[in-house]
User: What shape does this take?
Amino acid sequence: MAIMDVFLGDAFSARSLTAAVDRYSYVPNFLETLSGLFTPKPVRTAEVWIEERDFAPVLIQTSPAERLRRSAAASSARRAPS
Assistant: This one.
């Protein structure tokens, strides 16, 4: 019977452990199994900003860039003296 020396052998090296982990595919899905944890809230922008309020993550409402430019132009036109 062959005995492997686990302290001096290569059984638990970073390379061998990484190779063992790489054999299995992992798809994260734990949060999907918790029903009611997240409420879908679609956004129309390319990025979102999240902040913490009352110890919970909250989506900060944003506007598309084009709409901001139009509202800025309209407000500057209102402020211009006639």
